[in-house]
């Protein structure tokens, strides 16, 4: 109860004036939430309505987390929640509307979370789409894979960060952000187009949508590493952020492929199950050994090393480790989304100190 009250106080303190207008409604929701056991840890999983995300939701519920499935289809989310309740009868699993293809929807989702939840310990940015055969734009005018896979999550995290930080401060345990990337980040353009993230230049989208998917998955790692660096620069060590490649998983992800090679991979025994794929991100969400304190890292499923279904620390591409690219892409993500991330402006570490910390 003490932790929840402190989090409510601290989180409220860092919110903008618009939050104040919703204070009464929020206080009522918080009181109701407290009565239903709000002191349990809370995790939010985007795309928790299916595939690897649904397995992640179940894993966290089994560890006694209250889990919010943030999804664009209420029908699918309700069905996923019902399935979790079948295997974990006292599961506290809830639903939030989120369409990452619309920044307005993302901001509304975050506002609802801030209104309704007293604490937030974990966010797993898992939702994704892969290889749309031709270039599509979101309502915000952004290339669709980049928006759903990265930019939408970038906005979501800016909005939810204050509650994550307040929760970590009050509970004395780190809050955790997990960005689900892919080995496909290696498919990104060799000259990652920071000035053409939306791939508007003629021929930039490429054949079958793989370059755009690779760019968006590289974006997940660039974001992870730059956010880690900015957190440290702001003197924040209790919010941890990592990226993961779940493995090549037998999910619904190939639904948009013009040439669907997943059935062949299935026949060849090259696919892992959703449950196996979810292991890595679950361990990052929980901070399980050896990932208790790791941040700014990339872990990957190790089938290529003969360890199918296991996830270990792995070197992501040279591009993803390019400091200049990380910074430039952060700025471009701000420009495209209108996010400012002012919440991280306070800088307590000098460049010299950061360099000594190997950040
Ligand atoms: N499967 C693989 O082989 C593989 C390999 C490497 C990385 N990954 C990554 O793993 C993550 C999970 O993918 P998955 O394999 O579990 O695929 P999946 O079965 O297709 O699940 C994707 C989830 O994202 C949701 N989603 C899609 N567009 C959305 C939007 N605009 N707003 C909100 N939610 C949206 C989907 O909801 P709907 O069902 O309503 O569309 C679904 O819940 C993705 O980030 C993917 O890039 C997967």
Automatic annotation (TrEMBL):
One of its GO terms (molecular function) is oxidoreductase activity. SUPFAM superfamilies: NAD(P)-binding Rossmann-fold domains. Pfam families: adh_short. Keywords: NADP, Oxidoreductase. Belongs to the short-chain dehydrogenases/reductases (SDR) family. This is Protochlorophyllide reductase. It comes from Pycnococcus provasolii. The lineage of its organism: Eukaryota, Viridiplantae, Chlorophyta, Pseudoscourfieldiophyceae, Pseudoscourfieldiales.
């Amino acid at each position: 109860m003490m932790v929840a009250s402190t989090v409510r106080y601290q989180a409220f303190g860092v919110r903008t004036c618009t939050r104040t207008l919703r204070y009464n409604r929020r206080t009522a929701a918080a009181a109701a939430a407290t009565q239903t056991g709000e002191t349990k840890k809370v995790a939010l999983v985007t795309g928790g309505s299916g595939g690897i995300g649904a397995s992640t939701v179940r894993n966290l519920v089994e560890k006694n987390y209250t889990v919010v499935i943030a999804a664009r289809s209420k029908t699918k989310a309700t069905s996923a929640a019902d399935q979790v309740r079948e295997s974990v009868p006292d599961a506290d699993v809830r639903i939030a509307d989120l369409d990452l293809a619309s920044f307005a929807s993302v901001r509304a989702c975050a506002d609802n979370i801030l209104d309704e939840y007293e604490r937030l310990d974990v966010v797993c940015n898992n939702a994704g789409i892969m290889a749309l055969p031709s270039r599509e734009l979101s309502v915000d005018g952004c290339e669709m894979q980049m928006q759903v896979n990265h930019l939408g999550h970038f906005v979501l995290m800016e909005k939810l960060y204050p509650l994550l930080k307040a929760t970590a401060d009050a509970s004395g345990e780190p809050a955790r952000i997990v960005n689900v990337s892919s080995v496909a980040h290696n498919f990104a353009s060799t000259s990652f187009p920071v000035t053409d993230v939306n791939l508007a230049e003629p021929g930039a989208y490429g054949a079958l949508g793989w370059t755009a998917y690779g760019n968006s998955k590289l974006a997940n790692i660039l974001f992870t590493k730059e956010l880690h660096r900015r957190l440290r620069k702001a003197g924040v060590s209790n919010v941890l952020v990592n990226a993961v490649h779940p493995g090549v998983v037998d999910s619904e992800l190939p639904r948009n492929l013009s040439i669907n090679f997943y059935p062949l991979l299935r026949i060849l025994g090259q696919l892992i199950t959703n449950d196996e794929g979810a292991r890595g991100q679950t361990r990052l969400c929980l901070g399980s050994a050896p990932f208790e304190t790791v941040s700014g890292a990339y872990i990957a499923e190790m089938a290529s090393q003969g360890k199918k279904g296991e996830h270990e620390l792995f070197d992501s591409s040279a591009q993803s480790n390019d400091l200049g690219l990380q910074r430039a892409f952060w700025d471009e993500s701000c420009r495209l989304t209108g996010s400012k991330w002012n919440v991280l402006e306070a800088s307590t570490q000098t460049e010299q100190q950061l360099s000594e910390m190997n950040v």
